[in-house]
Amino acid sequence: MEIANSVIDMIGNTPMVRMPKIAGHLDCDFAIKLESYNPGGSSKDRPALAMLDAAEKAGLLKPGGTIVEPTSGNTGVGLAIVANQRGYKTVFVMTDKVAPEKVDLLRAYGAEVVVCPVAVPPEDPESYYSTAERLVNEIPGAFRPDQYSNPVNPQSHYESTGPEIWRQTDGKITHFVAGAGTGGTISGVAKYLKEQNPDIKIIAADPEGSVFSGGSGRPYLVEGVGEDFWPTTYHHDLVDEVIPISDHDSFLMARRIAREEGILLGGSCGTAIAAGLQVAKGLGPEDLMIVLTPDSGRGYLSKVYNDDYLARLGFIECDGDTCISAVVKAKGEKAGDLIYVNPETPVREAVEIMRTSGVSQVPVAKNEPPFALAEISGSVSELQLMNATFADESVLDKPVETVMASGLPTIGIGQSIQTAVELFEHANALLVIDGGRPRTVISHTDILEFLSPTTSEA
Q1: CB-CB contact of 101 with 302 (8 Å)
Q2: How far is Cα 172 from Cα 150, in angstroms, rounded to an integer?
Q3: Three-state secondary structure call for residue 255
Q4: For residue range 87-104, what is the model confidence (pLDDT) as tens digits?
């Protein structure tokens, strides 16, 4: 009988499919490997099972133990599936960047979930790496698989995913594309494929801003791919090319595939397919490109597939001159680089910045530009600082963070002017978000000048 003994036995052997609507115009053959067909819905089921098998064999994970791991969601699901089968508890650490349904999903498997801020460096005590390490030390019998440095991670793909791809393509594959997060998938598959044919090209699809494509690790919104440090499970010597893809192109590609091909994929799948299509333009009939798509889009319904969410972040636009983009364009040079202050900037300096820039309100932002929205920690205004200084003149020499107000209300560059007018009923300024990043600040005056241009301008 064709009946699996447990859900664990269903991991692997995922299908491949062509995309005639998206890639039918190409000269090369182009297909995706649908890792969403794993029981946990992603490619991470493979290393999850392998890492726990290895930990049990080495005596690192004992009966009744607790598995602790930082995850963007998919690895957590894979670990939870195996843990539930074998009687382990699970505690997962996630950043506040992940979609809320991913947190709910892990809790549905009975896991404890700890959410940490994304806008902190890895070494910060509040980072999800540091938090996971602390929990491992605090919880008796805890084991951390550590997908970022565990060699079993890439080895699992060397032993399963790579051979599957080679077999499914009858050895005709010439190009392989995958995202790089821990680097386990692309490194393991690359090692196997290059052992079969050294001429196979391996392409890493990376979010703009991630270290793999030369960034600092920030800012980007795509989940589960890219990094702000170099995992030891990433073998860069096996990767022939790294292609950075914007959040905008990642999200819109995923949405396009759902609507044209009927395949619901995650945002990082959009990253990988966008990179694959870039390379495929230069390929011929003798070439076969396989793009690994790691997960389903069901974990991103509140983000990638939510029109309001994408509009608020400036990824999709309304029509014509009714958009905030038209107001920003009308500002011309006045809408140049974002004027901001850091939390540690002295109040005296913040006052001078506003004075010389001719603005009355500025956001307070951690780090340096370009900023992620999560890095905007507050705002200050001339009126607010005047009142604080009048009450206590020593405030001038204190850092801005001691007196700052909450952040400015935000509006996507593609949202309507009507939305801005409604927001201005309760605010004096709005922070415009373009492609997920703060772009500029607009005021009542900017809207009024756009709606009522002067005679000379008319």
Answers
A1: yes
A2: 31
A3: helix
A4: 999 999 998 888 888 899
Q: Name the residue ranges covered by the structural domains of the chain.
A: 10-38+158-307, 45-143, 313-451
The residue type at 255: R
Q: How many CA atoms lie within 13 A of 433 on its CB side?
A: 26
Fold exhibited by the domain 45-143: Rossmann fold (3.40.50)
What is the rounded distance in angstroms from the CA atom of residue 311 to the CA atom of residue 251?
12
Q: What is the pLDDT of residues 144-182, one digit of tens each?
A: 999 999 999 999 999 999 999 999 999 999 999 999 999
Burial 26-41 (b: 16+ CB within 10 A, else e): bebbbbbbbbbebbbb
Catalytic residues: 44
Q: Which pTM was predicted?
A: 0.90
**Please, which residues have CB within 8 angstroms of residue 53's CB and are 6 or more apart in sequence?**
none
User: Quick check: do 10-38+158-307 and 45-143 share a fold?
Assistant: yes
- Taking domain 313-451, whether its CATH number is 3.40.50.1000 is answered by no
Dist. CA 59–CA 286, nearest whole Å = 49
Q: What is the DSSP string of 402-447?
A: GT-BPPPPEEETTSBHHHHHHHTTS-SEEEEEETTEEEEEEEHHHH
The domain defined by 10-38+158-307 folds into Rossmann fold (3.40.50)
Single-letter amino acid, residue 248:
H
